[in-house]
Structures are given as structure tokens and as C-alpha cells.
Amino acid sequence: MLTSKTPTSLARTQAYKIQLYEPSANLLQGQLAEEVFKEYVRRVAKDFSENPELKGLTYNPETQTIKGSNSYSAILINQIVEEKGLRVATQADLERILFHDPSDLRGFYNDAALILRSTDEPNKYPAKYLAEQIKTRTKLLPHYPLMINLTDLELEKKSKRILFKLKENAEPIRNPVLNQGGTFSPDEIDFKTGLPTSLPNYDTDENGLPIPTTKDGIRLLAYTRDKGLTRMTNNIFTDLETDILDLSRTEDTGRIIVIDPNQYQ
């Protein structure tokens, strides 16, 4: 990382590079969406015994669109589209899309990563399983907080549970801003990770909760927890939520964004 640069100069340095390509906001539509959804349904039945954590996705044949998203479904979709040379968007990919046109993602939420802050609750069991894998891989205790892109994970069935298995080439990303909250602008994004480099203080309401900003281009990173395993999404306003407890909740406004990684080479 270019730690010697200020956030503004960091973003400007990277801006030229990401101007060289304009990523498609979503390739998971049309005939591809139909094929992927059929394979998804087949694998949920065959490999995961119709586990309810994977049952939230729906397919609209009229619009040829897959609706819904959660941590589990996005990982399984990624396993399917990787066989076609594609991948689910990482947090960095989503920030590149937003850099070009925020309207591409506004109105929908997108699952990007898991945030591991400790082996405590919430989601203690999968948190411990992930931490043990990181310890085995690095021979060190995990240095929290960590962002783990969903593309770095596979689903693993153990008894009646579905757990998260680190891929061999997984690269969890440590960033202290994950244990902070605040607002940020496009100039403060590190496009290598998709995370802001700093978070100024933000205004709160009478309950101590952050007040969403209405300033153009300014976004919120919502943070209310410092333990356990949580879900990170870009919400319908394109703010970052890093503290979602329910890893399996799915709503119709969810979209799993699929990109072609070759466009970045």
C-alpha cells in the first residue's frame, strides 16, 4: 500500500489506472443469469440438502434477473461463475464501479465481504472456524479486524451447518477503519482494497447512531460492533455497512454483481 501518500493523492494516483477500463456493473443477467440460477438450484439441493441459508434467491424469467443476496448465496454463485472465467465483485470491484457511475448500484444492496473482529459472538462458531484456518495458514493469531472478500471463500458443509472455507490463495485484508465509523469521499478510497483510508468524525442522533449524509459524493461507513463475525454490504444508498449480524437474510433489493476479471489486466 502507498502509505506515504495522503488519501486525496492516493485516489488521484489510482484514478488514471481505473480510467483505463470501465467495468460492467453486472454481467449476471440475460441467458447467463438463467443458466447460473439453474445450476445454483441444483447445487443447493445436491450439495447442501436444501439448506435454508441458501434458499433466498429468486429468478425473474421476464427480466432474466436473479434477485436477492446474502453471504452464503454470493459465495456459491461465485463458485459457479468462476467456472465460466467470471467472479462475484469484490469490495474493490464495487468501488471501481461506483467511481464510474454510482447510479449503477444505487437502489440495490450488494454483499462484498465478511468482517472478522474476534472469535466471540455474533456468529461465534463460523468466526472461530475462520480464525483457526487463518492461524493454520499464517502460523500466527489473526490480527483483527479483517475483511475477507467473498471471492476468497468457499462453502463447506459440516453436519447440518454451512461454514466458510478459506481458499488457498485467500488474502484477508486488515484495516483499522473497520473498527471505526464515519463518512468518506471518493478521494479517500484505496482502490486496491475498496476501503477508505481514513474516516473523519460523523454526526450522531440522540441514540448515538450515525446520521446519513445528504452531501453529494459523501458516503457513510456504519460501524457499531467490535467483536465476532459480521457481514459487509454496500447498501441501497451505496453506504458501507460492516456490522450486519444476520449472514443469511435476503431481500428482493439484493443483487449479486458479477464481473469479468480479465478487464482489469
Set down the secondary structure blueprint.
Blueprint: H1 7-19, H2 30-48, E1 58-60, E2 65-67, H3 71-81, E3 87-88, H4 91-100, E4 110-116, H5 124-138, E5 146-149, E6 153-158, E7 161-166, E8 173-174, E9 182-184, E10 189-190, E11 195-196, E12 219-222, E13 229-234, E14 240-244, E15 258-259
Parallel strand pairs: 12-14
Antiparallel strand pairs: 1-2, 3-15, 4-5, 4-13, 5-8, 6-7, 9-12, 10-11, 13-14
Helix pairs in contact: 2-3
3D structure, described in words:
Residues 1-13 and 15-20 have low confidence and may be disordered. The protein has one domain. A hairpin with a 5-residue loop joins strand 13 and strand 14 (240-244). Helix 2 packs across helix 3. It has helices at 7-19, 30-48, 71-81, 91-100, 124-138; strands at residues 58-60, 65-67, 87-88, 110-116, 146-149, 153-158, 161-166, 173-174, 182-184, 189-190, 195-196, 219-222, 229-234, 240-244, 258-259. 41% of the residues are buried. The chain is 26% helix and 22% strand. The strands form 5 sheets. It has a 7-stranded mixed beta sheet. Strands 1-2 form a two-stranded antiparallel ribbon. With 265 residues, it is α+β, with helices and mostly antiparallel strands. The radius of gyration is 18 Å and the shape is globular. It is built from 5 helices and 15 strands.
Give a brief outline of the structure.
The chain is of the alpha+beta class and 265 residues long. It has helices at 7-19, 30-48, 71-81, 91-100, 124-138; strands spanning 58-60, 65-67, 87-88, 110-116, 146-149, 153-158, 161-166, 173-174, 182-184, 189-190, 195-196, 219-222, 229-234, 240-244, 258-259. The strands form five sheets. Strands 8-5-4-13-14-12-9 form a seven-stranded mixed sheet.
